[in-house]
Amino acid sequence: MAKTLTYEKELSFQGRKINYLLKIREQKNIVLRLQNDEIVVSAPFYANEWEIEQIIYKNIRKIEAYLKFIDTYKVYELNGTEKYIKIWGQNFPFAYESDILTADEKSEFKFFFRQYETANETVLKMYNKLKKVYEHEFTERIAYWANLMDLEFKNLTVRWFKGKWGVCYPSKSKILLNIRLIHYDKRALDYVCVHELAHLRHGNHSRDFWHFVEKYLPDYKKRAEILKIKLK
Prior knowledge:
The protein is α/β, with parallel strands linked by helices. It has three domains: 5-72, no CATH class; 76-126, no CATH class; 130-226, Metalloproteases ("zincins"), catalytic domain (Zincin-like). 38% of the residues lie in helices and 25% in strands. It contains seven helices and eleven strands. The protein has helices at 49-58, 60-72, 103-106, 119-148, 186-198, 207-216, 220-226; strands spanning 5-13, 16-24, 31-35, 38-43, 76-77, 84-87, 90-96, 111-113, 155-159, 166-169, 174-178. The strands form three sheets. It has a four-stranded mixed β-sheet, covered by helices on one side. A four-stranded mixed β-sheet has the order 5-6-7-8, with helices on one face. The longest helix is centred in the middle third of the chain and has 30 residues, at 119-148. It is globular.
């Protein structure tokens, strides 16, 4: 299997620092992608640095729009003096365990996270810690709705995953909830809980399924709209 070399890179445009992930591997062309809250450039081994930066500058307007969107709906800031994470719609400042702080300064922070070599690893470990702190709230909410809906499930797993906010496996009586729901208003968490529990009764998104959801959440459409804004 061909090896991929990954680097965290930075360039400046009109006084603004633009961070991007550079992946060097076996391929023919330089490719720019805006994905998973990141600017990702993949390039062949023989590509020059100026060629890589050139493709970024050629797409700078698209990148600026993307960065503006991220700034608007950002759920955490990992760098700088004002680092924060959004919990249930509210921003909380945090510090890294390696930060040198006085006792008074430490008292200002709700969270302390460990900083790793890459931002991706830092974020994943951050979510692992948040899961330990807030998993009981997920458990309480889904237990509340299961009781109200007269449904039973055997297992709940809260973790980070892509693509969906929740998953239900009716045959296993198992439900997965995405820890990233923690960034939204709790109404969104309730909607996902009801949605996934409803799949224990109705396996697909039939008319009966939505009628069942509406029975317990008459405003489910408004709650679902909250999650259409993909926070960054």
